[in-house]
Amino acid sequence: STMDKVVTKQKHLTLNEVERICQRALSASGLNDIATAAVTDAVTTAERDGCKSHGLFRISGYCEALLNGTVDGTIHPKVKDAAPSVVRVDAGGGFAPPAILAGRNLAISKARTNGISCLSIHNSVHYAALWWEVESLARENLVALAFVNSRSFVAHQPGGKRKIYGTNPMAFGFPRAATAPAPAVGQWSDAALSDEIHGPLVWDQASAAMARGEIQLCQRDGHTLPEGVAIDRDGSPTTSPDAALAGAQLPFGGHKGSAIALMVELLAAGLTGSQFSYEAADDSDDSGANNSPSNHGELIILIDPVVTSGGCDGYLQHCETLFERILEEEGTRLPSMRRYANRRKTPLEGITIPLSLYDEIVALGDA
Ligand code: NDP
Question: Name one Pfam family in it (predicted).
């Protein structure tokens, strides 16, 4: 009924204001300046690109983790030159963005020297979207693949009832001709980015059929779920958000998505020496209510296409012909085009968030 339609009061913000309230809230919660700059960049660019689920919505979770000691805000990541092609970063139980930035330059130079390298991060808390790291590496003219595990929410399919996997995202970044170089952290407003015709090709997706945040929004708003995204405690299909959160989410694409979730789990946690998602979940409550970030790992693979293509001139132009072929058909777009379109628009129009969310973040900054 119309009675159910609560009109939420909104607050309009410029991106400078987004950056400022984010910075204040994180600093006031005890996060050191370097990490604050990195996380603020991830949050501000998410708002800029229209990725609401990883924008200001996440701030209270970040701050809660700092305030309750899940994350130590004073920690600085430790970078180790582990092998000619391997950089290992101990994030020290801190957030992933500063750990990525700490190891990034060494991993880039190793990829250029050896053609390929990997950045292996352990003991980190990833609570952000993955396109942030792969897009920035693709702007260095490198191909990048990133894998992250989380707290277990997703059942192995077919046959599994228990939560085993995280929502286990992976992301892919591929350089394109005529993109601008990566701006420094905090330079989200870099004019070169909004003027370029297109950014690198990027996709970034969870291996769950539906994002956990979306299930929580359905629960809040009293909506039922689509079929095929979750099972209840007994392993029966359910469209009830409550039953789904108490039961388990399903991977996308049946056994194929399940295999990808398994691969991400092994690459992000097994290979980096981090907690598996089910281990991270053991200390959480069973109602599905625990939303705080968990301690896990991330693996990033960097490939230098100049080396793999034998220095062949024009490999980027060759790849452009594939994109053209795809885009010739009506109704198609490349992944990341939605974000790049928002990126051109948001600096002019600003963003809106619920007033209650704005008040909450400002209060965290005043504390
Ligand atoms: P979506 O299903 O919304 O999008 C997945 C990808 O598909 C995006 O790259 C998107 O590009 C692209 N895409 C969507 N629609 C189209 C289309 N019509 N044509 C071409 N490409 C399209 O993402 P998910 O819900 O799976 O994941 C959301 C975010 O959650 C990700 O950023 C992920 O990193 C993050 N995440 C983080 C976790 C963590 O622990 N840190 C855990 C799980 C998820 P575009 O953006 O341009 O629409």
Answer: Ldh_2
Express each pLDDT in 141-191 by its tens digit. 999 999 999 999 999 999 999 999 999 999 999 999 878 888 888 888 887
Catalytic residue among 27, 29, 54, 136: 54
Question: Which residue's CA is the closest to the ligand 1 atom numbered 48?
Answer: 338
**322: CB partners within 8 A, 6+ apart:** none
Place of tokens 């992933």: 96
336 touches ligand 1 (CB under 6 Å): yes
pLDDT reading at 286 higher than 90: no
Choosing from 204, 214, 294 the residue with most ligand 1 atoms within 8 A of its CB, the one to mutate for a pocket test is 204
Asked if pLDDT for residue 2 goes beyond 60, the answer is no
- Write out pLDDT tens, residues 9-35: 999 999 999 999 999 999 999 999 999
Q: Is the CB of 133 under 6 A from ligand 1?
A: no
Q: Classify domain 77-209+250-336 at the CATH class level.
A: alpha beta
Q: Would you give the distance in Å from CA 101 to the centre of its chain? A: 15
C-beta of 18 in contact with ligand 1 (< 6 A): no
Which is catalytic among the residues 214, 279, 320, 360? 214
ipTM over 0.95: yes
**Token code pair at residue 11:** 């607050």
